[in-house]
Amino acid sequence: MNAIDQASLDRNTGADAALINDILRIFITEVAPEGRLVTSGIDPAERRRLAHRVRGAALGIGALALAGKAMVLERDPADAEDLAEPEDLAAFDAALTALVSEIERRLATA
């Protein structure tokens, strides 16, 4: 399974190859490093903020699996309890890693 839904990416970019490459580069340089912080043991409020940012960016490039994993980590509990389960963090990390690998492959052949 691809980490990027091509139909979503094309719809969001007008299938403009140059725009797609620019957006994927921005994801790699700006969003992916913040995504790595999500699983680094930061405080729950900051994790939710970053997960929200990653989710929005992931939706923009058609990375639907990552967006779904980020949405789970965005949950805002009514109290200060941290709802992130280790398996949710691991699933987010795996989805981010798969996406970054796919983007790197795409950019290498662009």
UniProtKB/TrEMBL annotation:
Top-level taxon in the UniProt lineage: Bacteria
Gene3D superfamilies for this protein: HPT domain (1.20.120.160)
InterPro entries for this protein: HPT_dom_sf
Annotated protein name in UniProt: HPt (Histidine-containing phosphotransfer) domain-containing protein
Organism: Kaistia dalseonensis
